[in-house]
């Protein structure tokens, strides 16, 4: 069986990506990160999703958040709320975490080489106003090149591949794909600023994009919202 590492944040995109990898016959190894994000709800979601989708193993790696300052996800910076789609898509958002996907993919690459797998899956999405530079196809293509010239396995002909099956899908299409693959969407978490009881705020950029996706897909979002 082919082995792959799947970056798993606990949101819809990464959960659907894990389900896609499993549906393609991969034995999946899920990788999540505790990097000092302002809440732990997403890590709890990731654990539940990895179990529900049959991951062979799920690891949560801790990264010192001293290198991740300036982002609303890790610092005392206000999370934007109630923005229009035009505002969300106008610039790189303050929720951008410096070089996060580069760092996450580097860890995934190391683990893939250790387990003898040459495939890495990431739920990056460049559509629906995401605005993150490290979710673009150009970035992923260059990281794949790096993986193949900077590792023992790559030099010896193992050829790593970075898979981003959702990169050009709308959020509505991702919701439909998740339902098709029987992902338990009630386990997923997308909110940047949840309430103390874990309920999603309903007004941050991530919640708004999620709600838009469910509305356009014509299905109800099964998670709890505070607002």
Q: What is the topological layout?
A:
Blueprint: E1 2-7, H1 12-23, E2 26-34, H2 41-52, E3 57-62, H3 85-88, H4 100-115, E4 119-121, H5 137-149, H6 152-155, E5 161-163, H7 171-180, H8 205-217
Parallel strand pairs: 1-2, 1-4, 2-3, 4-5
Helix pairs in contact: 1-7, 7-8
Question: Could you list some keywords that capture this structure?
Answer:
8 helices, 227 residues, globular, Rossmann fold, alpha/beta, 5 strands
Report on the structure:
There is one protein chain. The protein is α/β, with parallel strands linked by helices and 227 residues long. The protein has a single domain, classed as Rossmann fold (3-Layer(aba) Sandwich), CATH 3.40.50. 37% of the residues lie in helices and 12% in strands. It has 8 helices and 5 strands, in the order βαβαβααβααβαα. Strand 2, helix 2 and strand 3 form a beta-alpha-beta unit. Helix 1 crosses helix 7 and helix 7 packs across helix 8. The N and C termini lie far apart (45 Å).
């Amino acid at each position: 069986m082919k082995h792959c590492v799947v970056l798993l944040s606990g949101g819809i995109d990464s959960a659907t990506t894990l389900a896609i990898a499993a549906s393609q016959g991969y034995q999946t190894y899920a990788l999540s990160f505790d990097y000092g994000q302002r809440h732990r709800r997403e890590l709890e979601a990731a654990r539940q999703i990895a179990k529900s989708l049959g991951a062979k193993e799920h690891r949560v790696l801790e990264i010192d958040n001293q290198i991740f300052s300036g982002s609303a996800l890790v610092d005392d910076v206000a999370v934007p709320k109630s923005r229009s789609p035009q505002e969300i898509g106008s610039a790189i958002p303050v929720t951008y975490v410096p070089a996060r996907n580069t760092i996450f993919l580097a860890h995934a690459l190391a683990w893939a080489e250790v387990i003898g797998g040459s495939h890495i899956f990431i739920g990056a999405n460049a559509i629906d106003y995401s605005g993150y530079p490290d979710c673009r196809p150009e970035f992923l293509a260059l990281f794949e090149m790096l993986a193949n010239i900077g590792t023992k396995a790559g030099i010896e002909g193992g050829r790593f591949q970075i898979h981003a099956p959702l990169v050009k899908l709308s959020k509505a299409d991702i919701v439909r794909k998740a339902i098709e693959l029987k992902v338990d969407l009630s386990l997923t978490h997308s909110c940047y600023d949840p309430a103390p009881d874990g309920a999603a705020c309903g007004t941050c950029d991530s919640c708004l994009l999620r709600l838009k996706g469910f509305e356009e897909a014509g299905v109800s979002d099964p998670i709890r919202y505070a607002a």
